[in-house]
Amino acid sequence: MATTETGGAETAFDWFGFLARWGTLISLVLLIAFFSLARPEVFPTLRNTLNILNQVSILGIIALGLTVCLVVGLFDLSIGAMATFGGYFAARFLAELGMDSAWVVLGAVLAVLILAMLIGMINGALVSYLGISAIVETLAMSFVVTGVILGVSGARTVYSSDIPESFQIIGQGAILGIPNPILIMIATALVLWVFLEHTQPGRNMYAIGGNREAARLSGINFQKFALIAMAISAACAALGGLVAAANLASGRPQGVGETYLLNAFVAVFIGASTLRPGKFHVFGTAVGVLLIGVINNGLSVMGVATYWQYIVQGLILILALISASMNSVRRA
Amino acid sequence: MAIGRYLLGAAAGAALGAGATAALAQDEVQVGIVAVNYNSPTINTMATVAEATAKERGWQVEVFDGQGDQVATNNAANNYIDRGFDAIINIASPNPQMTGVIERANEAGIPFVSTFSGLAAGITADIGSNNTADGVIATTEMVGRLEGQGKVVKLNWNVLPALRERDHGFHATLEDYPDVEVIEIEVKVPGQVDDAYNQMTNILLSNPDVDAVWTGWDELVAPVVRAIEQAGLEDEIFVVSMDGNEEAIDLIRQGTAAELTVAYDVDRMGEVAVDVVEAALAGNPPSSRLLTLKPCLITQDTAPAKGEDVDFANCMLFSGEAVAQ
């Protein structure tokens, strides 16, 4: 319990509050410092910095969309399937069309994102109007989407030779030396940050996430914002999968989104222990994503075995969650 | 232990002999095909060909995709047996993890035939390749190109028996080449394609002097080639692999960093699986539980034209054969 003495007496430093707010960022800085000292010729270079950002960009795009859902208190477990959906169908559409044109690519990308948003809105409608648990409903939807992809694809991958160059540029090109996936991630983060932090709908979403009943009594329509949040989450997941397909020039019908599903939740929950403990927010998610990227890259650059990456990532998550719970420990 | 295996084999054979002829006497043979990971290109090809071949023979076929879930795959196979199917074909799901299914198939007196699934007591036969030998072939070709020295990155997933056997071939060959330095990477599965790309990108940053990459299977070739190209090292590094999937052969044909692959006749594996089922149902199971097919060495010179299949009947397996011709 922090107390204030009279007459300019000293105030006890609030270690709990400090760690709750800054613990994750301090972990990130310490990890960067450690890896920089361990491999000074490789880790702290501009090339590796871009490399880390490029490697986390797909996860980042997906996790940022998930953040919006979690802000309104809804878990979206369909993001893995939606990422696979985005990558596979964009590649498949373009392979079927067989035209290497930027306009055709733009059309295919938009079509896939709109389809993803519609699926997200169905999720939102089922959850908000029928009151179905979001976890169960989105899990069920992920089965449906996976089934559709496998049915349409016959479980066959669309290979690079069938995917037009102008699509591959989305994942492989660069502007002013910055890889396109990084730019897409930054653009997504900026748009969602402005939306959540600086618009009335965004503030309404925080109000719903804080106390749905109080928000309802204030005239905020949960159903409408559930639709929007789920649509954004699905579109971001599809966009992430699409960037992955363009990056590796292959439309895989399975094994894409599953990789990102759990890591996206890890990133967002790490983010919720950053600066604003217990609150999901775009900056926190970005820090969470970066933390995962730094751990994986740093250990990989040091030549550490893969299983250590799992162990360290898990330990960091536990530390982040302990850090986030500092406030409640203090209150107790 | 060994006696137990012989007894199990003998019991399985006897049960097959009794039940098989009855199955063939029926007009329609029912076959259940299970694959733990149907979407993997090689597995998909084997399963699709086996299904088509069985249907061509007028058999009734059902296919189950485990989507990576071995338990679900085993349950599906058990369901087929309980429903009175005449045979089970297992496509690349590790047989040592299906011993319960194999025992149930033996009890029901029906053949259990697999492809690329490894040896387990009680199976009718496993059709595949000699993966250890294939690992030796790919590694020997790699060492020859390296002139016996250099830095090699090996990416593999040692959980799958076939990949572990290829790994044994890799290490056995390199035992006599102390000047070949190896960086070993165990890729994360699922997510192997993305992980291979990320790990390779990171390794090339810290080890730009890498000379060659050995990947345990062809699915990793494309992301590795992409990482090499992104690092601008496509003229410095080459990639060797095994499987012979369409994408890898395409990259070899195009003259990318993908240098060669030991290609398997996966179409024929699917066909042979059906042949073995038919023979077993007729009371003639094969004498060996491991049936291997000849692979081909695919380089830019031997790669078939786009859209054409590898000619497994006439292809080469060793690079020296091309010189000798």
UniProtKB/TrEMBL annotation, chain A:
Methyltransferase keyword on record: no
TM segment ranges: 15-37, 58-91, 103-122, 129-153, 173-196, 225-248, 260-275, 282-301, 307-326
Recorded superkingdom: Bacteria
InterPro entries with a match to the protein in the record: ABC_transp_permease (IPR001851)
Statement: the UniProt record of this protein carries the keyword Nuclease: no
Keywords: Cell inner membrane, Cell membrane, Membrane, Transmembrane, Transmembrane helix, Transport
Compartmental location: Cell membrane
Topology class, membrane: Multi-pass membrane protein
One annotated GO molecular function: transmembrane transporter activity
Cellular component annotations (GO), alphabetically ordered: plasma membrane
Protein's name according to its UniProt entry: ABC transporter permease
Origin species: Rhodosalinus halophilus
Automatic annotation (TrEMBL), chain B:
Annotated Gene Ontology cellular component terms: cell envelope
InterPro entries, alphabetized: Peripla_BP_I, SBP_2_dom
Keywords annotated in UniProt: Signal
Pfam families xref list: Peripla_BP_4
Top-rank lineage group of the source organism: Bacteria
Residue ranges occupied by any Periplasmic binding protein domain in the UniProt entry: 31-284
Signal peptide: 1-25
PANTHER family assigned: D-ALLOSE-BINDING PERIPLASMIC PROTEIN-RELATED (PTHR46847:SF1)
Family of this protein: Belongs to the bacterial solute-binding protein 2 family.
Name this polypeptide is given: Periplasmic binding protein domain-containing protein
Taxonomic lineage of the native organism: Bacteria, Pseudomonadati, Pseudomonadota, Alphaproteobacteria, Rhodobacterales
